Amino acid sequence: MTGLPLIIGISGASGVIYGIRLLEVLRDLGIETHLVMSRSGEVTIAHETDRKIADIKALAAHVHAQSDIGAAISSGSFKTRGMIVAPCSMKSMAEIATGTTSGLLTRAADVVLKERRRLVLMTRETPLHTGHLRSMTQLSEMGAIIAPPVPAFYPRPQTLSNMIDHTIGRVLDLFDIDAKLVHRWKAEESSDPAQDESATGSMSKAPLPRGRPDLRRLS
Q1: Which residues face 62 on adjacent strands?
Q2: Residue numbering of the annotated binding site for FMN
Q3: Residue 167 φ then ψ, to 5°
Q4: Which 3 state secondary structure label does DSSP give 67?
Q5: Domain ranges in the chain?
Q6: Which residues are known binding-site members?
Q7: Residue-wise pLDDT tens digits, 87-134
Q8: End-to-end CA distance of the chain
Q9: Is 182 left (phi over 0), alpha (psi -120 to 50) or beta?
């Protein structure tokens, strides 16, 4: 393990595969992770995947119970790169925005903010009401990065895994971690999109896959 550790929070919003995939990628990169999952996050994992909770926990270097408010990541004296909440529910986001933390996940995020470290929230909800938007604005003003997992289509993804990995790669970019997952846009190879009928620069022109992806089959 090299460098400072990175905290990964998995809340109860849909999209737990983002948190799981982050743990896999960071493990392969040799980056130490501290994982905290909310109870709702564990329930969502059971609904959206065939993964066992124990197997997901095994991906992290350290695992902390949501109720363990005395864990290392609850203190600013424990140095980290920051934290990614993937996915981030509106409930967790609201707690972080107001500082009223009910468990270790939101406490750890609060600590990252107060220590002026990087906090990335992969918020998962649509549509958004004014309260959601105000919380996002407040968090952005406090230094957090709101990073909804919006898929990129310019790389012409062939699988759901391609879309997930590109998003994960972009989030890790925010920590200056290049996981080699991002199909980066090379605008200099398409200087005049008007003359390029596809307007996709150097991206693959393979057709998009048809059919509905099955999240439960992701490994």
Answers
A1: 34
A2: 12-14, 38, 89-92, 124
A3: -65, -45
A4: coil
A5: 6-217
A6: 12-14, 38, 89-92, 124, 154, 170
A7: 999 999 999 999 999 999 999 999 999 999 999 999 999 999 999 999
A8: 24
A9: beta
